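Priority: medium. Attachment 1 of 2:
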């Protein structure tokens, strides 16, 4: 197929990006593998378009995206976990939770964001661990995700975490989340 060839071989990132877009719109399972490979493209806009195209292809992309989470390149894992979060498919839950343990903060952030979209209480315990993440932006998204899931366990974890949180913006997010949680 000419689109797959263009996506793989064109020296022009704009052409690769358009090929990814058109492959996504085709909504064919044959496009999934080349789009997964494009998540590792050298050009950021091509990686982003491949991710969006995979979301367009729907749930059929969930398993290949979960496999892409094992890629050694963090950019590929980042875009894979972003697509999984946007798909918000229950099959994405386990790969998203595993993304919380990634060695790259970008991937942990995007996994937390994806879990916010899923809103599954299974993610509470793994997310609570990230309230102590070294990256303040990861902690901030974790607070938002936990707040979206809600419940007594989340409230208790936030009350405990706010005591030791040193970043003012993260503390503010925790206060907001606790206000939204309401009284016991």
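Attachment 2 of 2:
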């Amino acid at each position: 197929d000419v689109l797959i060839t263009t996506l793989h071989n064109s020296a022009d990132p704009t052409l690769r990006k358009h090929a990814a877009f058109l492959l996504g719109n085709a909504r064919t399972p044959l496009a999934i593998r080349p789009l997964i490979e494009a998540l590792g493209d050298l050009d950021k806009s091509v990686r982003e378009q491949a991710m969006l195209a995979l979301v367009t292809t729907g749930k059929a992309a969930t398993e290949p995206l979960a496999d892409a989470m094992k890629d050694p390149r963090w950019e590929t894992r980042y875009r894979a976990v972003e697509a999984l979060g946007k798909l918000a498919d229950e099959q994405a839950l386990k790969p998203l939770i595993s993304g919380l343990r990634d060695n790259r903060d970008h991937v942990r952030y995007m996994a937390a964001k994806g879990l916010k979209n899923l809103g599954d209480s299974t993610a509470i315990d793994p997310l609570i661990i990230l309230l102590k993440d070294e990256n303040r932006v990861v902690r901030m998204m974790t607070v938002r995700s936990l707040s979206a899931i809600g419940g007594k366990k989340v409230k208790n974890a936030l009350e405990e975490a706010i005591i030791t949180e040193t970043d003012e913006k993260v503390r503010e997010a925790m206060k907001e989340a606790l206000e939204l949680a309401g009284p016991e």
